[in-house]
């Protein structure tokens, strides 16, 4: 298979990659030779009639130590449309070669064991990253941060599985005390591993980073919510009007503050009653948005703030209420004073939101898990949890089955099965059958 792996032409350079058993033959046809492995070489590329296509750098990577696990060739062309099209047409005319489909290079890397499923997911996130936090998180996963943690858990789990199997198959069946001692050691190992999995499950989900934190602006009608989201977005996103109930639905805009992806939402003004049925629908949606928010920006009176673990109380429209004793008293109980019209307090709001957002993101060096990975990890933890004093805690067969099921759940994170690994651990460590 072959494909243009750089940006669409025209560009300074166009990189065409060829992967598979015919990669070397294709390079020989185009360049007339194979260069030394992993050394760039200048060559004139020609078509089947000997006409020049381009003067390019060629590289040859014999498999399996390549990004796809197969023979791999790269053609670094001049990035004009006609040049790239001519080389691709020549490759397509060669027997055994075809254009790659979307994601096929990465899929072959996974199928050939060059990367696992978690790393492939990290690579997909890296390609889609638009903010600094998304880039850092995706780079860690693509680089194997999650995979290395899973490999360590699997290694410990394999040791426990091997111990259980060895005791079941080769221990003296009449020695009950020995079996109980083995069960206790296995349960202790399972408990330690379960606690570590619980720590990972307590981290923020990767979707929070990829999709952006939800920041909801809420408060009573005419509190300045629409003016604030317009100021944040730096465009007329929401209609601003002195008429109460102008905002009827949740208006959302994506923003990035200090490299952190966020989704800011303007909501309908919250009040108990309305003569307008449509406005009441908007109020219900606003309440639902508040409940689902990662961060709440409350523009109402402090005493009316909805219960939320991460609410920032804002005394908005400061340009209007200066000198009002009641408003001044309320402002004293807020986190900041703000006027979206004059810009007062906007920098402080920025700092408050970013500081709170950082508490919801993984710390430096930590990796978050995608929903699919979290489900598998939670299942593994459930299988590793045995109630003390229960019948299962005294039954090696049930313990061994729980270990097997926990291992199968972990295998789903990386997409690799572990039956052969368990057998290797069993016979390699215990020297059974010598």
In words, what does this structure look like?
With 434 residues, the protein is an alpha/beta fold. It has three domains: 2-111, Probable tRNA modification gtpase trme, domain 1 (Gyrase A, domain 2, 2-Layer Sandwich), CATH 3.30.1360.120; 145-203 and 368-430, tRNA modification GTPase MnmE domain 2 (Four Helix Bundle (Hemerythrin (Met), subunit A), Up-down Bundle); 209-358, Rossmann fold, CATH 3.40.50. Helix content is 47%, strand content 15%. The chain contains 16 helices and eleven strands. The chain has helices spanning 23-31, 81-93, 104-111, 117-128, 132-142, 145-170, 176-201, 206-211, 225-233, 277-292, 318-321, 325-331, 346-358, 371-384, 396-414, 419-430; strands at 2-4, 11-19, 41-46, 52-61, 72-79, 213-218, 251-257, 260-266, 295-298, 311-315, 336-337. Strand 1 (2-4) and strand 2 (11-19) form a beta hairpin.
